[in-house]
Amino acid sequence: MSNSKPLLRYGHSEGRTEVCYDNSGKHLVSCGFDGNLKVWKSIEDDPNTIRAGDQTFSIGIKGKTLYVASDANSVDKYSFPDGSPDGLLVRFTGNVTHLSVSESRKLVAAGSCDFDIKTIEVESGKQKSYLGHQAPILSVAIDPMEEYLASASCDGNMKIWSLKTTKCVNTLSIISSSNDVGNSKTLCKICWRPVTGEDIAVPSEDGIKIFNRDTWVLLHTLTADATTKAYQCCSFSPCGRFLAAATVDGWIVLWDAETEMNVRTVQHPLKTCISSIVWNPQQNNCVAFSDTRGQVGLLEDVVPTEQPTKPKREADDLDALFDDEDDNMMVDLMADDVDEKPQVKFIFLAAPIPSTLDVFAADTDADLAPPTILPPAPVESKYTLDDDASSVATGMCAVTTRSQPSSMQPPFQPTSTPTHLSHRFMFDNFIIGVIRSYSDEMENAIDVEFHDTQTHHALHLPNHDQYTMAGLSNRAVVLAAESTPDAPSKLKCVHFSSWDNNKEWTIEMPDGEELQALTVGDDWIAACTDSLQVRFFTLGGVQRQILSIPGNVVAMAACMDQLFVVYHVTQGFGNNQCFGFMLLEVGVSGGSKSRSVVGGSALPVTPGSKLEWVGFTAEGTPATVDTAGVIRMMNRSFCQTWITVAKLKSIAKSRHDHYWVVALHENPQQIHYIQCKGSIYPSTLPRPTLSVAQYKIPLCEADSDKGKFEEEYWRTKLFSSHQDYLNTHGYETDTGAKQKTDLLIQHTLMRLFALCCKSDQEYQAMDVCSMMPTSASMSLAIKYASRIRKIMLAQRLSEEAILKKQQKMDVESEEEDDDFRTELQAGYSAAETEWSTQRSSNKPSSSQPGGLDEDDDDVMGAQATLFTTKLNLTSTPKPKKVLQRSKPDVDDEVLQKSAEDNVDVPRYKATTGVQLYLDEHLPHLEEEHPDLDAIDVRKMGIKNFRAISVEEKKNWNNRAKSASMRSAAGTAGGNKRKLADEVDENDPPCSGDVITSSNPAKNLRLDMDEAADADTCNAKAKLSSFAYSATE
Description:
Layout: E1 7-10, E2 18-21, E3 28-31, E4 36-40, E5 48-51, E6 56-62, E7 65-70, E8 74-79, E9 85-91, E10 96-101, E11 107-112, E12 117-121, E13 127-130, E14 137-142, E15 148-153, E16 157-162, E17 168-173, E18 191-192, E19 199-204, E20 207-212, E21 218-222, E22 231-236, E23 242-247, E24 251-256, E25 261-267, E26 274-279, E27 286-291, E28 295-300, H1 315-321, H2 324-340, H3 356-359, E29 384-385, E30 392-393, E31 423-428, E32 433-439, E33 444-450, E34 459-462, E35 467-472, E36 477-481, E37 490-494, E38 504-508, E39 515-520, E40 524-529, E41 533-538, E42 543-548, E43 553-559, E44 562-570, E45 578-585, E46 595-603, E47 611-616, E48 622-626, E49 630-635, E50 641-647, E51 657-665, E52 670-677, E53 690-693, H4 705-718, H5 722-728, H6 735-758, H7 762-770, H8 775-787, H9 791-827, H10 856-869, H11 879-886, H12 892-901, H13 913-928, H14 934-947, H15 950-972, H16 1008-1031
Helix pairs in contact: 4-6, 6-7, 6-8, 7-9, 8-9, 9-16, 11-12, 13-14, 13-15
């Protein structure tokens, strides 16, 4: 080890500095925080000064051009060596932290504190951007072969980019994360091995890490016994054999990169942090450096005169390798192969990347010249032989590289910012509230703020346990902390809505399990660990179910009783991710039943992107947002598939802007986001402002009138499908909003139908009519087609209307068959029949007198029975219907006689308060809502009955009991003779007997077969007369 002291000169003010040599090695250029550029011909002479701005951060020189990164957020060009300005190369939205110039002088790369990286072609000025880092850029380095670009960032990762496609080839975790270049433990100035680029050296906190070019596998880590501090920068010698590096505490360490031996160690006289180091391109024994005090230094004779080299191969082996006899044998074999015409016509030998192990097998200090690489020979279709047949010329081709596995996205909490930020969002929800974390020298705490102060007042919680994950509902705050050497990973719940005095509880995970994701439902908590376990807890702290997922978790979200879990299915390739998801109805609360909506399916994501937000809309529909700005939502009405509903990149005003999604709404159709200018994550202060964007489904020809109507129809239909889901799960919905949606759908389809008719696209118009939801809209389309003289279209639509009516009648007939089986069991006895099903014990039969009591559970039971009877007028079936269905082969007269002799069967009377209420109010509801069908009107009536007071419900129940008693007393006296003008309900109706409601469109049929024939004939007659009058 040599203790030679370096030569030092004061060059700049205190701060980060950088040095570089020109190609001749005669000039050394330095820059610093004083904004000056210093050109040194000799370390002992006074330098020339060039003013470049208030501050300069990085420099690069190739040929007669000097590139400078200044505080003007740009990279400027200067002529060298006179220093005259030569224009602007590229501009950023933040300070340029580092730049790199390619060996060919054709390409310049620069990274900025706005997380952006750009490459610029010097001649054409063409720019490319490389986005993917989540923190300011520390350094960039262009591959000598100009195939890759390497970059290091404050997010702790080093990324390898393809210069051709701008896509990330690989991501490696190198250093600790930080939020700014000044706060980083290392500048991490990476460098490639000269000429070949066969490996790359990366400074880190524990040494210089050497990675292989093709596999990106860590080959070895170079360290020195003299220091244990972080390494700031490194640089390969021009020959590629030696590597120099500098540390935070001023040590300069040199290694033989081939033997991994420490060649020399020298410390800065002032033990100052060294921020830059570079080799003289024309000398292998001279290193220049600069420190954070503004000093420029020179260290000479760094390479010893003798170094152990690779053992020389024996001459005999070399002679045997190129023996003439073997050559002749190869030529003969090749000649035979050509005559026999084998299947493999061409044989290509890939040109290997030259290795410095062979180049410097026996070099000395006096003979260390850079290796030269011959250009690849043209690919030849066959072997060519020289005149004496003593050598073989083989064709060469480019090395084919396989797709490398992409790095798997780590787990994240939706709407949370990275943990390395001192002030960050832990949870941000537009509906409930916000959780912020503050970690600095003054305070380490968590603030919880609710948007509605009636939910709870703001909370201020100390963060002594270093909680990094959070979840929030309108009843509790949940926090999670990673494990430490002294404590396991833990989960904490602040149940502020609890009625007891103990509102907090904490539970520790088992040894070896690390919490990675959590979410909060209505009254349950789900937490996922790295052991692929999802653990469920109640808000009170009781452990419930445990679920195993098939891959590493990515994110989780909860809404109401739904749990949305995203996980890795496998490792992707080509920078793509392979995600899967589960959608469950948990059912751990209130004893409700659990159900798997989607047990395990692939989750779509834009190629080359990752997930940025996972959650639910405000109405409870699963949705995702990826880093490409694509918003996808689950389409429940189409086989639980995913559909793209918006692309945020298309509405961005600048490509440097980023939209941080906070919440999604279906009614109204709005996207709530925070606009981040020049950054990816929003800052906690000043308080960010929410903005609103609209959805747009990416259909073809979206700018045309036809495309606009189609997009509006499908978007409206998609964003109204949540109402059916909520209704089936017992949640109240806005009936008025559904009516407006139906009218909007009908209006949009009619406009699209009119457009198709005007364009003479009658078949398209026919397709549009097939999507119309009601017969009224179909009739309107027929009238419009007749009015504009589209007679053939009107006739086709008439036939389509008849067919759809017949299909609807068939469906309703099947539904009534199912309802009749339930009525049969409810109206006669509890004995089992061929249609009997297991009935719930807490839902009494609607035919029992007094079945509807004051208890709300009985009301709900009666209402459930009413839902199953849908279009029937009463809850007790006709005896004739029973006999027809139980004995379909009996003569009609026998059946009628059997029905007349039966005196024990009561007449159709309302036996519950709900039924009595509906019998009196349904006509009025039908008049008020003529656009609703009979089922929706009945549902609305039941909803109104629920809304009345308890006293009114008692009155209706009492009236129903009295009516039931009078009906029972009237039938107890025996079979009475009917009057001549009285119609018995048990008699079969005539072909024209139809019970109608106040709205003709809602006719309720007593006999399905006879009514179907009558209605079909009537509809055909009307449509035929309409078509005939239209032709006139």
